[in-house]
Amino acid sequence: MDAQRSLHRQLFETINKEMDDDDFRSFRSIAQGKGLRPGEASKCNTPSDVLDKLQRKGKIKLGCYQALKDIFAEMEQEGLIEEVTKTERKLEEMGCEISDEIPQPYDNLKRQASFPGETAEEKRRRFRAQSSSSSLDSNPSFERQISPTAEQRRGSMTSYWQFDSSASARHPLRRQSSSRSLPRSPQSSFDDNDVTREELEEREDCYKQGRGYVLIINNFSKEREASENDVEGLSDFFKKIGYKVQPKKNLKKDEMMDALDMAKTEIQKTAKGKNKYSCFICIVSSHGDKEGVKSYDNQTVSIAELQVPFLGDSLKCMAGSPKMFIIQSCRGKQKQPGVDRADEEPGDEGQLDVSDVMSSATTPRDADVLVAYATTEGFQAFRRVGEGSWFLSKMRAVFNHKHQSDHLMDMLTEVNDRVSHRTAIGSKPAKQMPCQVSTFTKKFYF
């Protein structure tokens, strides 16, 4: 029994160490809907505090972690689910009974017992519905409360981050990905100032809705551990919303250019049919430098080379339609340090007042193009073993939860914010700042 309890405690310690600030806020928020009251959740300053509260209320206990796995599934943390599953396997080998039931909180036992004749499964469903009714709405300042930094929680934990320009030392503890399909959080209903999707079609400030074509190129897939997680997660998202997805991996430069040409050809073929594409998205995950991304034969492919086949004069059927290039790679060898925020001072901005600008029905060749970089020029981009890249993993999470309510630039702004709060722990803590270059002329909704 002591060995079982020791494994139970080790699981809690692992979860506490594995979570960064963003993970913790999500964990605390979802746990509030799984049995914790708003007041109880607001007093939790670390993942350990949340785990302890859930355990004290009887939601999780030795050998019974289903509530914990449900929370991690909503967080889309496959690595943490795998850690729980590994602990369950070890406990089972020691003779501990493993249950997938969710215990009833002690303060709800009386309410649960007031429905005689219910089956255990009916009680469980009813309790879930009751507990989920508790939401952040009752405590709107909850997410704004200050929590300890990830560095403070981890203490002296050794760094196990990797960056995409070269191999780095790995921490012995790795999040392992799971091939199982995880349940997704319920999707929010579309809300753009109470405008429906049908009404959105009539708006002149939005791109037309339709089916998109997505080309995903993942180079150095074995060397860049966990990059497959990014590809699979984004593929799942785009397939879910009805886009055509074409994944490729480990392409030499000429093969990359061929893949781009094949995408262009297919878009042209469907240009006049009912299945025509409304947008093009190219995602490249690879090593890189300030000149561009690396092909599998270690040649540089510039961002301009990726774009050329799809610009207005090369692919006229997509003129006026959005083209996106999402680049997950380093753009240099420097590690970006964190800096204290200073008060902003007003600057001198020149203004050009032109009253007789002539409008035109033509479109610039470079219009309607967006390039989303994982990091600013000159700096490294990071991956987490077992999870995937900071940039694409946060993008996947934001897209899944916000695509029905937010347009693309708003979602990318949230991705910027989430990634900016992460810190790579090592001899010198490092940050990462995604950025976008856009010539979009309208709002884009998936």
From TrEMBL:
UniProt xrefs under InterPro entries: Caspase-like_dom_sf, Caspase-related_regulators, DEATH-like_dom_sf, DED_dom, Pept_C14_caspase, Pept_C14_p10, Pept_C14_p20, Pept_C14A
Low complexity: compositionally biased ranges: 129-141, 175-189
Annotated GO biological process: proteolysis; regulation of apoptotic process
Region (Disordered): 98-203, 335-361
Gene3D superfamilies: 3.40.50.1460, Death Domain, Fas (1.10.533.10)
Keywords annotated in UniProt: Repeat
Biased composition (Acidic residues): 342-351
Residues in Caspase family p20 domain copies: 210-334
Caspase family p10 domain residues: 359-446
Basic and acidic residues composition-biased segments: 194-203
Comp. bias (Polar residues): 142-168
Occurrences of domain DED (ranges): 7-86
Pfam families to which the protein is assigned, alphabetical: Peptidase_C14
GO MF, one annotated term: cysteine-type endopeptidase activity
Family in the record: Belongs to the peptidase C14A family.
Protein name in UniProt: Caspase 3-like protein
Organism expressing this protein natively: Branchiostoma lanceolatum (Common lancelet)
